[in-house]
Write a structure and sequence with these properties.
Radius of gyration: 23 Å
Number of domains: 3
Structural class: alpha/beta
Number of helices: 12
Helix content: 25-40%
Number of strands: 18
CATH class of the largest domain: Alpha Beta
Largest sheet: 6 strands, mixed
Order of helices and strands: EHEHEHEEHEHHEHEEEEEEHEHEHHHEEE
CATH architecture of the largest domain: 2-Layer Sandwich
Strand order of the largest sheet: 2-1-3-4-5-6
CATH topology of the largest domain: Nucleotidyltransferase, domain 5
Length: 329
């Protein structure tokens, strides 16, 4: 987690150094006169969390021009310079500010001041749980609907395509038909349900030399549509090491925020299973199939076989997520 902290006084810097020593990934700056606006603008888009050591009002005014949505905003936590209170002020659940405030409070003996309604009442916070489980909330506007029902004392129904360890939280129960929350990598399902998508799919991609990123993107989208897989479920791209420096493939991965994993022909050839072989591909690369083998090697079992077109091949592999209900904040 990338955390940027800023302090305004000598006392605040002392507290900041204590936090930094206990918090991997934290950077610490001292605010110079007139520099807060610039620091906030730079830090807001480049970090997972911001920590202000000083007055809450200063932090609120500093971040106000940059606040967008709970899906995109980083966590923001404020601590007074004596380390008495740790206050999450933005992205308490999805951004993890509530959890970070508790963590930082423990470092310095502060009191975490968590004000989100579900936490105050000790109820299941679905967005906080989703973040901890690595689930993407694809329709975050439905979070309020779920939380409001829980706060009203109602029970919400959940359907998951995958097993979840542990006992279901209070007011949450499994339901395959009338569900309010759906955990799935697929695009189909009840439109009104809150949809949580695990990142469990790898796209194996092969392409001709010089193929444009746009062409690769079109083939990728077509493969997702045919398999019924949600784009948010894709966690990585895999291919043969001969394509490690392919400009179009690298650009595609950068555009989609996906890491690229590459394997040698020998590694791909050693993958067990039945794959769509090609004599031409084997002559060119040393292995009979790139996309299917690479997808499986990187991401589990084959979800969809090779789709070919315009010099691009795409296959999808999937693995089962590890989901559990544990203690909530």
């Amino acid at each position: 987690m990338r955390i940027a902290a800023i302090a305004f006084t000598d006392c605040g810097m002392v507290l900041g150094r204590r936090l930094q020593a206990e918090t991997p990934g934290m950077t610490l700056d001292r605010c110079e006169k007139g520099g807060l606006a610039f620091w906030t603008e730079e830090a807001f888009g480049a970090n997972d969390a911001l920590v202000f050591i000083g007055a809450a009002g200063i932090a609120v005014r500093a971040i106000a021009p940059h606040v967008r949505t709970k899906v995109h905003d980083p966590a923001v936590v404020v601590l007074d310079e004596l380390g008495t209170f740790a206050i999450p002020v933005l992205s308490g659940h999805l951004g993890g500010a509530n959890e970070l405030a508790v963590r930082l409070a423990r470092c310095v003996g502060a009191l975490p001041v968590v004000t989100t309604a579900t936490d105050v009442h000790g109820l299941f916070a679905v967005d906080s749980w989703a973040r901890k489980q690595g689930l993407t909330v694809v329709n975050p506007e439905r979070i309020k609907w779920i939380s409001a029902r829980l706060l009203a004392g109602e029970t919400v129904k959940l359907k998951s395509l995958y097993p979840i360890k542990g006992a279901y939280p209070a007011q949450v129960e499994a339901d395959e038909e009338g569900y309010d929350i759906l955990i799935t990598h697929r695009t189909r399902g009840r439109a009104e349900a809150l949809r949580l998508v695990p990142k469990i799919v790898t796209a194996g991609i092969g392409c001709k030399k010089g193929t444009a990123a746009e062409t690769i993107g079109e083939a990728f989208d077509a493969a997702l549509r045919k398999s019924g897989c949600h784009a948010a479920a894709v966690k990585a791209v895999a291919t043969i090491d001969l394509k490690a420096d392919e400009p179009g493939l690298l650009a595609f991965c950068e555009n989609h925020g996906l890491p690229l994993y590459t394997y040698s022909a020998a590694e791909l050839a050693a993958v067990p299973g039945s794959f769509t072989g090609s004599a031409f591909v084997k002559k060119t690369t040393g292995v009979d199939n790139v996309c299917e083998r690479a997808a499986v090697l990187c991401g589990g079992r084959l979800l969809s076989q090779k789709e070919a077109g315009n010099g691009v091949t795409v296959a999808l592999a999937i693995e089962e997520p590890k989901l559990s209900f544990g203690e909530e904040l």
